[in-house]
Write a structure and sequence with these properties.
By secondary structure, the protein is α+β, with helices and mostly antiparallel strands. It contains 8 helices and 10 strands. Helix 5 crosses helix 8 and helix 6 packs parallel to helix 7.
Length: 279
């Protein structure tokens, strides 16, 4: 796949110009080859508050929201032709936040090549801005993703259908906590991608794709289903979408059930259970 050149610049909050202490709060990336200009900005201010207890969080939040909207307007106003030929990330960034704009300053320009500017922007944002953020919100587990399915099936009085089932081949063995047999085994696996980094999302997806490869030679007839939960961090959404597509293309052609489609999925499963019981 063709790689495209890009430049990027980090937006930093400088609490005290004399002391020089600063923390990263955003990043902007420009790829002329792909006519791409994008920016991501911090939404969680816990780390800033810990580093600088007297920071005016409300004002900073308003400033970053204003800057984010300004970038959205700039992208629409400039048009794809201008984005392909003019300047670099810094030249666009300084149109929004000038070089001497008080507590918010831009870093030196960085550069590289990428297959996907949008994915690289997400990775840079996590690596440079949110990687060390201490979030007070607990991340959801696989059990948390399964809970709405369990609750809906309980309402429909079919939650008791599930049992544990181990599917094995000469290459792999996986125990599914939630399985049901109707001619063949239907094995349901919740997957929470509410993780901290792009790498952790990719690793979890790769692990389950590996299981699908290993179980593709299993003698027992079964079909896998993955109920998938999104990450809470907006910057990780594209990594989540790539992970889900990766799993969907795996051997055995697993069925993917996004968490916002759980109710319809549970209703359909209940209908199939009742139809099976009437036979």
């Amino acid at each position: 796949m063709k790689r495209h050149r890009y430049t990027y610049s980090i937006l930093r909050y400088r609490h005290d110009p004399v002391a020089g202490e600063q923390l990263n709060v955003g990043v902007v990336l420009h790829s002329p080859d792909k006519h791409f200009l994008g920016a991501r900005f911090r939404k969680n201010y816990g780390r800033l508050s810990k580093a600088f207890p007297d920071v005016d969080g409300s004002t900073l939040r308003q400033d970053l929201s204003r800057i984010e909207k300004a970038f959205e307007r700039l992208t629409k106003m400039e048009g794809s032709d201008l984005l392909s030929i003019e300047g670099n990330a810094a030249s666009f960034a300084t149109k929004i936040v000038g070089p001497d704009d008080g507590s918010l300053i831009w870093s030196d320009l960085g550069s590289g090549t990428t297959e996907s500017p949008e994915a690289t922007l997400d990775k840079l944002f996590v690596r440079l801005v949110t990687q060390y953020e201490d979030s007070t919100a607990p991340r959801r587990t696989d059990a948390d993703v399964w809970r709405p399915v369990r609750d809906r099936l309980a309402e429909l009085k079919v939650a008791s259908i599930f049992e544990k089932k181990t599917i094995a081949s000469s290459k792999d063995e996986v125990e599914f906590e939630h399985a049901w047999k109707n001619g063949k085994w239907h094995c349901y696996q919740p997957l929470s991608f509410d993780l901290a980094t792009v790498d952790s999302i990719q690793e979890k997806a790769a692990r389950w794709v590996g299981h699908m490869v290993g179980l593709s030679s299993a003698s027992e007839n079964f079909h896998p289903y993955f109920i998938v939960g999104k990450p809470s961090e907006p910057a990780l959404q594209s990594a989540y979408r790539r992970a889900v597509d990766f799993i969907a293309d795996a051997p055995l052609h697993p069925t993917i059930v996004p968490e916002d489609e759980v109710e319809a999925f549970a209703n359909d499963l209940a209908d199939r259970v009742h139809s099976h019981e009437r036979k």
